[in-house]
Amino acid sequence: MEVAGKFGESKAKKLRRQIDVSISNGANIFIVNLKNVYFMESSGLAALVLIHKRIQAAGCKLFLVSISAPVKMLFELTSLDSVFQILSERTELNERSSLPITPAKSVTKYANALSS
Questions:
Q1: What is the pLDDT of residue 104?
Q2: Torsional sign, CA 57, 104, 4, 34
Q3: Exposure of 81 by Cβ count < 10 A (0-12 exposed, 13-18 middle, 19+ buried)?
Q4: Containing domain of residue 79, as a range?
Q5: Spacing of C-alpha 26 from chain mean position
Q6: Considering the chain, what percentage of its residues have pLDDT values greater than 70?
Q7: pTM surpassing 0.85?
Q8: Those residues with Cβ within 8 angstroms of residue 11's Cβ, 6 or more apart along the chain or in another chain
């Protein structure tokens, strides 16, 4: 899943819905690419915290990858960089994850919606 541009309430709602659908479809690994996020509103940050809680409660894993410099600074200032598993590249996922990857069928459908 990729989020681009300004990550605010609208994109946060879409991402939360997609995560819920994906969990229902049996996904167990969630990868959110934040490379092209130039600004994150508090609602976007709050959504990621809620998503993290939902994913953990479902026994799944969340990885944030390729976070942009402004988002990285926000995570460091809020100490959320110690809460989330942040990877510089998606290729690091194989090294960090012990779960078998089961992608949700609907992930691609919503990834495009989140980028717009």
A1: 45
A2: positive
A3: middle
A4: 2-109
A5: 17
A6: 77
A7: no
A8: 3, 5, 44, 114
